[in-house]
Every structure is written in C-alpha cells, then in structure tokens.
Amino acid sequence: MKAREGEVITSALFANGIKVFGHHPRDGAPQGIFCVNGQCSQCMVLLNGVPVKGCMTTLMPGMHIESCEGVPGLPEDDALPDFSDPETIETDVLVIGGGPAGINAARELGILGIDTLVVDDKNELGGKLTLQTHPFFGSKDDCYAGIRGIHIARILTAELEKLESVKTIRNTTAVGVFHDGIIGMYGEGKYFLVRPRAVLVSCGAREKTLAFPGCDLPGVYGAGAFQTLLNRDLILPTERLFIVGGGNVGLIAGYHAIQAGIQVVGLVEALPHCGGYKVHLDKLKRLGVPVFTSHTILAAEGADTLERIIISGIDEGFRPIPGTEKEYNVDTLLIAVGLTPVDELYKKMRDFGIECYACGDSEEIAEASAALFSGKIIGRKIARSLGHPVEIPAEWYATEEVLRSKPGKKIPFQPADQNMRMYPLIRCVEEIPCDPCVDSCPQGSIIIEEDSIMGLPVFRGECIGCMKCVSACPALAITVVQPDYDTANDTALVVIPYELAWNDLAEGKEVRTVDMEGNPIGGGKIIKFKKSALDKSRILVFLEVPRKDAFQAAGFLVQEIEKGQKGPVVTETLPDDTIICRCERITAGEIRGEIRAGVRDMNILKATVRSGMGACGGKSCTELILKLYRDEGVDPADVTLPTERPFVAEVPFSTFAGVKGERGGK
User: Fold this and answer.
1) Are the C-beta atoms of residues 202 and 95 closer than 8 Å to each other?
2) Of the candidates 334, 311, 290, 294, which has an alpha carbon nearest to the alpha carbon of residue 517?
3) pLDDT in tens, 66-107
4) Angle at 420 between CA 416 and CA 424, to 5 degrees
5) Residue 73's pLDDT is what?
6) Is 353 left (phi over 0), alpha (psi -120 to 50) or beta?
7) Which of 332, 374, 383, 389 has the fewest CB atoms within 10 Å, counting from its CB?
8) How many beta carbons lie within 10 A of that of residue 645, not counting itself?
C-alpha cells in the first residue's frame, strides 16, 4: 500500500479503504477507530508482529502491518535481557502537553530563560489547534481571534522554537508519576525519566462517549477523530454523516464535513436547545442540516460497519417517546457529547506532593481561545514559584474569565434600513467573547458599546463598502446589503461570506435563500464572487435578491434536507448486550449483574468482569459504568473509582529490557 510521508497508520488504512482493522478475540466483533487520540484501543494493529495503536504510530517505508486477529503470541527469544537503568533528565519545568495552553506557558517561561522541557505525544505541536480550520473567536490581541486554528499552531510553534531555554520532545507520552517526584516517559521505543522542579499538566481533554446498541460498530466514532482524519490527515472518511451532540465540537465538525463535500444528514441534541454558540448552529442550519433538539440516538445498525441509525424524540426525563422514531441510512455517526479533562497525572502528582499545575482543558473545559490565554497566566505563576519576580497583570484574570464564559443573553435580530447606499447587517444575537469585526472596520463604525468583548457589536456610522467585516467575522454572521441595487426590478444586493468549494458557484446561478436560522425565504441569483482580500479561504458571494428579502437573506442552501423514514419502535433503550467496555467487550448486562449483587467498587468490577482491564485503562468506560450505577439507583458518590497507577499508557516490556530490533523498532 502507498501512504503519505508522516501519516499515521490508521489514516493510511482509511485512505486505502480499510476501516475494519481486526476482530475482537472475545466475540469476533469488528474493530475500527474511535478516538484517534491515543485514549482508546480500538485501532490496535500488529506492526512487525508487535501490537501498537495505529492512530499514534507514524508510518515508515517497509512496515509490515497486520490485523490483530485473536491474541498475538509471544515471540521466541533466547536473548538474555539487560534491565539497565533508564536515562534521567533534569529540568526546571516539565510541560506535559504541547497544545495551545502548554505552548503559551512554555513560551512565557522561555522568555524568562527558565529551563523548560515540553513533551507531547504527537509528531507536531499545537494539540487540537492542528484540527481547527475555522477562524478563532475571542480577542485579536489576546488569543489570535480571526486567525484559523491551524495557522495559530504554526505561529506558536515557530515562536517557541526560537527560545533557547525551551526544549521539546515529540511522539512521547508521560506514562507514570512516582512518589519521589519523577515522571516516566515513553516514546520512540525508549523509556526515560524526568526530574523537574515543577510540572505543568496541559494534556487537554478526551471525548466522552455514549452507550447504545451498536455504539461499538466501526463507523461510530468521536468528532475529534473525524476532524483528525479530515483536517490534519486530509482523508475523506465518509460520504453520509450524522452527529450526536449540539455543543461547539459537534457543530463545528458538521461544518467542516460540509466544507469537504460530505452530506451531513442531521444532528440530534438531547437538551431542548443546543449548547454550542448560536452562530455555529445557524451556519449548519443555513446550509441545509436538520437539527433535532430533545432527541437522542437509539441504535446503530450494520454488519461489519455502520449502515443505518435510529433516532427518536425524548421527554423531559430523557425517555424515548414511542412513535417518534426515525431511521437514516448513514455510514458514519459522530459522537460529540462533551469532553473530560485528561488530568489523572495531575491528580496523582497532587497526591504525592509534587509541585504541579494544570491549565487548558486539563484544568477546565473551555474554548481553545481560553486555553491560549490561561497558558500565559500559568506560565508566569510557575516562574514566580521558582523565584522569578514577574508581574501578572490583574486584568489578565478578568480576560481569562471572559474567554471561559458560556454564551450569555440572546437578543432578537432586528434589522433596520439605515438609509445608506450599503451597510453591514450584524447577526450576533448571543453574547460570546468575540471582537474581530470591531478591528476590521477602517471607519471605526462597528463598536461594542459594553466594556467587554462579551458585548454585542453594533454598526454606528458610515460604510465604505470595503467588505472587511464580512471577511473578518469568525462566525460568518455579517452580510453587507445594498438595498437599491436595481430599482427598476426592485432588487437588492447582499454580500454573503462563503467557505465551501468554488466549483459550487457560478455567475447567474439561481439559489434558494434562507434567513440566519436556515428558514427558507425565496430565490436569489449569484451576480459574482471573489476571494476575500483578508482571508484567502473565504469567498464573498454577491447575491441579487428581491428587495423585500434583503434584510433577512443570510445564506443559501447547499444540500437537500433529508426527512428520513419512519423507524421501528424501540422498547428497550439500553439492552443487556450493549457494549460498555470496548477493550474487553463487557456488556451492560454483565455490569448490571455485579451492581445488583452489591458491588460498589470499580476495582472489584475489574476482577469479576474485567471492565477497565483493557488497553485504554478504563478511560472510555468509567463514566458509562457510573451512569449504570445511577440508573440502578446507586449514588455515584458511594462508588469507589478505579485506582490510577503507572502506567497510564502502554509501555512494551522490551523497552525496559533494552531489546532492540525489527519488531516494531523495539
């Protein structure tokens, strides 16, 4: 098989049309990707006879890759291993995780000349920034607002590499914390130790998952995994996609899918409203994606891979409403139901009394813009603890709080005729931290009247028709109107931001216009289109519409809205044969049996049914098991959680024995 240089195994297999990597030895179930972030074990393959996580292993020419069919046998080896002491690295500060928070913290430390080591488990720094092709919200001065995440990652990495006191080690995972203050590391076939004076944990977050019949089928995976395949590795992994979860992660993933030409069949959200930014939700609706609130996924079905899903409405108690079931034919289902901090190392360090800090999503789940800024603050806090007299401006804390804010109040969109030749219509109707439009206007005519970037921008003054606000708005929430474009035909001109493929556009093409929330308005005609001078990835579409529609027209449909077909009535939402522990293929029924027998310690569950004993170490199933306890009437506070011990990620025995050779490079 052929692959791109630097690609990981799973992406190369997907590009070659292989989405099932093997079958589980317990029940023969097909195995595919789920997280594509090293947190689960769904992508295990044999590399030169050695089991590895395909999503974390970079391809090299000549690798021999096989599926893990059954349990691999141990190799025959008569060599006497040499258990030599691992290397120990001394540093002032160890930063675990080179995402936006970790990079910015290390940058602050490096500017002060503090010896800093950044360790990251990927082959490039930037964390989730490397998956984010959309422009950032927030403040231009504080967190690169208006710049796309992939570009921010490159900017930050370049700045970090200029600092002599900062060293980086990539493709390396922090796998253990020990009571003597030493951190164990594994990467590139080597195990070594780090002895820091202080540690910053900025490992980000892992995706939560759901349990439902068929949740373990290949084709059901996390939204972050999808963005990794699509945006980082440039793989088109699906043709027909459905999304579970209306937070920003799910909404943004859906938008990225449409940008790639993928049919987004629909999105369900269990709550009565989507929790993500309204502007993200509106973007999807304008493109023709149906969004079902107070709905859930009931089942995923297929032979070896996903073929169809069943959704239904739910009542106030989140119980399915019989008769509301719908069935859709899809090949991929994205799970985007929230994030959990990757903080087990941080908690263990605190237990051992190690001087440690957390920032970014490891501290609190928030937007990447907040992670960027929190990294600056925590970097200076660590510097202070090491005796460096550095200032932390008081206003930084206020800015950090704003960037972490949830959406605020909503105000209905009320466009008004400004009696000008042309002017912008700003459809920001929900308070979120964002201000690039203010900086974009050369006339200073867009302002935020409140003393906070959480305020809503308004147009006050003159418009010269430069279109910079249309280009700068990260949410695609600004259009420019020329109400009296053609007075003879009573038509107006509306300039709309567009980020899909050029080949979908043509001068003279008739389109179906929609308002800001995707409701149909009428028809329009494309007069011309051109690339934005500020952002080469954005196109400005000049649309002629009836004058009466000028103030409502915010976009046009690009895909047909699917209604699905009536689905079968589902009487049992979580049958006993539903998989809860993916690694060991442990079912809901097996765990329920132990709960009903009085087990209140998840360490005992490991011994009795083996839940949490797999390669992921319980990272995927722990929260699902706690939900089973709640469903059985047991307060999770009365349940003993699994004990965290080294190693939190896999380390081959051959590494400790000093064995090197052809078997996976060990």
Assistant:
1) yes
2) 290
3) 988 766 666 666 666 666 788 999 999 999 999 999 999 999
4) 60
5) 66
6) left
7) 389
8) 11
The alpha carbon of 124 is separated from its chain's Cα centroid by a whole number of angstroms, namely: 17
Q: pLDDT tens digits, residue range 620-642?
A: 999 999 999 999 999 999 999 99
d(CA 200, CA 375): 10
Give this prediction's pTM.
0.93
- Kindly write down the DSSP assignment for every residue of 124-177, as one continuous string: SS-GGGGG--SBP-B-HHHH-TTSBHHHHHHHHHHHHHT-TTEEEE-SEEEEEE
State pLDDT tens for residues 4-49. Answer: 988 999 999 999 999 999 898 889 899 999 999 888 888 989 898 8
d(CA 56, CA 169): 15
For the stretch 148-178, pLDDT in tens is 999 999 999 999 999 999 999 999 999 999 9
Q: How confident is the model at residue 220 (pLDDT cuts 50, 70, 90)?
A: very high
What span, in angstroms and rounded, lies between the C-alpha atoms of 77 and 428?
Answer: 66
The amino acid that residue 656 corresponds to is F
Q: What's the CA gap between 63 and 59, in Å, rounded?
A: 7
Q: How many residues does the chain have?
A: 666
- Mean per-residue pLDDT for 513-537? 94
By DSSP bridging, strand 332-335 and strand 240-244 are parallel
Q: How far apart are CA 547 and CA 492, in angstroms?
A: 5
DSSP for 436-452, written as a single string: HHHHH-TT--EEE-SSS
Is residue 189 within 8 Å of 655, Cβ to Cβ? yes
Q: What is the pLDDT of residues 561-620, one digit of tens each?
A: 998 999 998 877 899 999 999 999 999 999 999 999 999 999 999 999 999 998 888 989
Phi, psi of 559 (to 5 degrees): -140, 155
Is the Cβ–Cβ distance between 65 and 46 less than 8 Å?
A: yes
Q: What is the chain's alpha carbon radius of gyration, rounded to the nearest angstrom? A: 26
- What Å distances lie between residue 591 and 62, 238, 577, 596, 601, CA to CA? 43, 33, 11, 9, 12
Residues forming a β-bridge with 542: 495, 528
- The yes-or-no verdict on residue 451 having pLDDT over 90 is no
Scanning 288-418, the segments in alpha helix (DSSP H) are 344-352, 368-385, 394-403
Distance (Å, whole) CA 320 – CA 375: 43
Contact (CB, 8 A) for 82 and 35: no
Structure token digits, residue 544: 């002629």
User: What span, in angstroms and rounded, lies between the C-alpha atoms of 48 and 595?
Assistant: 41
Contact by Cβ (8 Å): 193, 88: yes
For the chain, list the domains and their CATH numbers.
9-73 (no CATH), 88-205+341-403 (3.50.50.60), 209-337 (3.50.50.60), 423-556 (no CATH)
- The predicted pLDDT at position 504 comes to 87
**Average per-residue pLDDT for the chain:** 92
Closest by CA position to 309, among listed 283, 280, 335? 335
Return d(Cα 138, Cα 369) in angstroms, integer.
Answer: 6
pLDDT for 662:
44
